[in-house]
UniProtKB/TrEMBL annotation:
Name listed for the protein in its UniProt record: TonB-dependent receptor
Record's subcellular location: Cell outer membrane
Source superkingdom: Bacteria
Membrane topology: Multi-pass membrane protein
Length: 799
């Protein structure tokens, strides 16, 4: 009996040791009591852990009994370690204090709107980006944000992609990374294809719709996207992220970081490779990139260095699909030459300082340098030698003025400068003032080469048939501030001066001398107010002005126009209400954007037959936007947005080519009160999330874009049809003992196989009528169709 009793005691002890228990609790801010979402809770030595959810709660299952150390970390807060005796009788309440180490959030403070800034904006966190990030470019990941329309030349979201916000195209959307301008100084565009898999190195983004706040770089002229790259990680980590899918799409990403070394140093790195055959025939992409970051994190100062690069080769799918082939051959590509490719690499270097001077003043400064170089190669059948400043080739007494040619057009540029800001907050916190600015220089070389000819001519392989250089200096200074006039009422002011000096010299690709110089001085004021109530509501209203210089082509093509292109002016009024309650939140805003001298394509030709843009005197955008989310239960939530707008040009003159007679001329057609091109009157999205069990999520993502015209004539024969698409997303994460996190994601795009085209272009002309009697109008439309039902699936492992 004694042996049996001893055996039972030992057996009970054994059961207690091997029994599996549960550790749960909530993570809060020690000072405010607010719950903290996304805090990491790890039981050391077990491989077990969890992340706090939207309510700040966490739960770790299958924990053995005994004494363990609980490790809790959250960005911007002090690390907490607690010794626990498991099993626990009650859930834990973990209180974290804000870190004494200066955080990186001030790096982007000068370019960001806050909760008291009277403008329309949306913040997008790393977790939201990661749910969609399977290798597509950033415009595709932003497709479900308010008033956004995304598109892809190759039809699958990899390669050349773009977006419009409120109908505003990419050349009018200002993009910064860590407060440093990313828009091309001459075209004003952002070529996301040169930043493959950049989303994997993004910590958060803010999209400002309308003029927004003063930013470093080109003036915002309709919207801005402010990006902050990955911030320091408290602990060392490694991450492997692979995805694959339709059209032979592959993405391979490896990330690693040291965590904080001696509580002061941290280093991170990413290496990515993306390839895809594309939906469009031969529309392949071969993309490579890396991101390396290192920093010193003191109590009051941070010094950080970022180096990132992207190299791309894409087969050209720029021409689009002719309208008559949309039903029979949606994947048609005009080009068949095997090396009809675009080849470009862009290297970025950023040195960033941010620090606390004293209790009232903070400072931020950054130096940057970008080196870009590359070319696109084209096969030109039966091309004119005169287009390359060459005489006809004489062979056997026969003069040959045309022949097959392969050419390369090059761009080799340097972009460098600095940005800075100082932030003053008064002792009583009534004043919050930012003084900042920047100075940047662009030095670009444009040239072209013939690398092959059907018959030998008097030209060497490295001879340049055109060559021109451009230098652009862009300087800006601003002061902006918020003053709390009474409890809950904040007054806002923002004054910006921007100076532009732009010179270009040499011969353009149409063999014209384009030498010239222009100078601009812009003043961009902004004023507004915000009123916050004790019930979680925030009202705001603002008036802002933005001015923008024409892009490169407006100057290089302008000699034939009676007057030089004028700078564009925008006056923007924003009014809105923001509500944030326990289970629901929404934002409602009204905007009015009035343009003077907006530059648009009219069909007018210059003296060598290139289409040019001209200023229209008066145009506007007027709209209402609503976005929100509602938590129906612990398992269901719904969110979405809708924008209804009216986008008009008061008067517009179209120029139509007339080939109906021997004497070519352009006919003018006048229009009044027409829609602005590529500006749908309705854009919306809706997302339904279902969480069937812990760490699993099923989402239906819907997008609707109303019909939009491809030019400013409101001609229904030159229109993109409305479309509604639905995507399905599956996410599941678990924490097995051998890794910190294992996550699976599947995205099925366009599950109902809709045929739609979010982008295109059009042109029209007159030809002689049947039997050369009279004339008839011919309209040619070209579209960029998106793929039908397709998928991407990914596996992410974090160590």
């Amino acid at each position: 009996m004694r042996k049996l009793g001893l055996s039972l005691v030992l057996f009970c002890v054994y059961l207690n040791v091997v029994a599996q228990h549960r550790v749960s609790g909530i993570v809060k801010d020690k000072e405010t009591g607010e719950v903290l979402v996304g805090a990491n809770v790890i039981i050391e030595g077990t491989g077990r852990g969890a992340t706090s959810d939207l309510s700040g709660n966490f739960e770790i299952r299958n924990v053995p009994g005994g004494e363990f150390t609980l490790n809790i970390t959250y960005l911007g807060y002090e690390r907490v370690k607690n010794t626990l005796e498991i099993p626990l009788n009650t859930p834990l309440e973990i209180l974290l204090s804000q870190s004494g180490i200066f955080t990186e959030e001030f790096v982007v403070y000068g370019t960001r709107a806050t909760n008291v800034t009277p403008t329309t904006f949306q913040n997008i966190q790393k977790e939201e980006i990661a749910k969609l990030n399977l290798g597509q470019d950033i415009p595709m990941l932003l497709n479900y944000t308010p008033s956004v329309v995304s598109f892809s030349d190759a039809g699958a979201g990899v390669g050349y992609t773009g977006l419009r916000i409120r109908g505003t195209d990419q050349t009018r959307i200002n993009v910064t990374v860590n407060g440093i301008p990313m828009n091309d100084a001459e075209s004003h565009g952002v070529f996301w294809v040169n930043m493959p898999d950049f989303a994997s190195s993004v910590d958060n983004m803010q999209i400002q719709r309308g003029v927004g706040t003063s930013t470093n770089g080109a003036a915002t002229f309709g919207a801005s996207i402010n990006i902050q790259t990955d911030t320091k990680q408290e602990d060392a980590y490694g991450e492997v992220d692979n995805s694959f899918g339709s059209f032979n799409t592959r993405r391979h990403t490896v990330k690693a970081g040291t965590g904080l070394i001696k509580d002061r140093w941290a280093f991170d790195a990413r290496l990515s490779q993306i390839s895809s055959d594309g939906y469009i025939d031969r529309g392949f992409s071969d993309l490579k990139s890396f991101f390396v970051s290192g920093g010193y994190y003191g109590d009051k100062h941070i010094f950080k260095m970022n180096v990132f690069s992207g190299a791309e080769q894409t087969y050209q799918s720029w021409e689009g699909v002719p309208e008559h082939l949309l039903e029979s051959n949606r994947t048609f590509n005009l080009y068949t030459y095997d090396n009809q490719t675009d080849n470009y690499q862009q290297d970025h270097y950023q040195f960033i300082y941010t620090g606390e001077i004293n209790s009232n003043w903070k400072a931020n400064a950054a130096l940057h340098y970008t080196y870009g170089r590359g070319y696109y190669e084209q096969f030109r059948p039966n091309d004119r030698l005169s287009s390359y400043n060459l005489q006809p080739v004489e062979i056997g007494g026969v003069s040959i003025p045309r022949m097959d040619i392969i050419r390369r057009r090059w761009l080799d540029n340097d972009f460098y400068g600095g940005v800075f800001s100082f932030n003053y907050i008064s002792d009583n916190a009534l004043w919050d003032v930012v003084i900042g600015g920047g100075a940047n220089r662009y030095d670009g070389d444009h040239f072209g080469e013939i690398i092959w000819m059907q018959y030998a001519a008097d030209v060497n392989i490295r001879d340049r048939y055109y060559d021109n250089v451009a230098i652009k200096d862009d300087k800006n200074l601003y002061i902006k501030g918020t003053f709390e006039a009474t409890e809950g009422l904040f007054l806002y002011g923002d004054l910006q001066w921007r100076g532009v000096d732009y010179s270009f010299d040499g011969v353009n690709n149409d063999l014209r001398d384009i030498s010239g110089q222009v100078n601009y001085n812009f003043f961009n004021p902004k004023f507004g107010l915000t009123y916050q109530t004790a019930t979680g509501k925030s009202w705001y209203a603002s008036y802002a002005v933005a001015n923008r210089e024409p892009v490169r082509r407006d100057f290089t093509d302008s000699p034939i126009i009676d007057r030089a292109p004028q700078a564009e002016n925008l006056q923007n009024i924003e009014m809105g209400l923001k509500v944030n309650q326990r289970n629901f939140a929404y934002n409602l805003n009204v905007y009015y954007m009035k343009y003077r001298d907006q530059l648009v394509l009219t069909g007018q030709l210059n003296d060598v037959g290139a289409y040019v843009r001209d200023n229209v005197d008066d145009s506007y955008r007027l709209g209402v936007e609503l976005d929100g989310s509602y938590k129906l239960s612990s398992k269901f939530s719904i969110g979405g947005n809708i924008a209804v707008s009216r986008n008009k040009i008061s008067s517009f003159t179209e120029f139509l080519d007339d080939y109906s007679t021997e004497d070519f001329f352009q006919e003018e057609v006048n229009y009044t009160n027409t829609d602005i091109a590529f500006s749908p009157n309705v854009v919306g999205s809706a997302i339904l999330d279902f969480r069937p069990f812990k760490n699993a999520e099923v989402s239906l993502l819907n997008k609707y874009v109303g019909s939009q015209f491809m030019d400013n004539t409101m001609n229904e024969n030159r229109m993109l049809d409305s479309f509604w698409t639905t995507d399905l997303r599956l996410n599941y994460a678990l924490r097995p003992r051998f890794v910190n996190n294992l996550e699976f994601t599947v995205m099925v795009y366009n599950i109902f196989n809709r045929l739609y085209e979010p982008n295109g272009y059009t042109f029209s002309y007159f030809v002689a009528g049947e039997g050369n009697v009279g004339r008839e109008l011919v309209t040619e439309n070209f579209y960029y169709p998106m793929a039908g039902t397709n998928f991407l699936a990914g596996v992410k492992v974090r160590f």
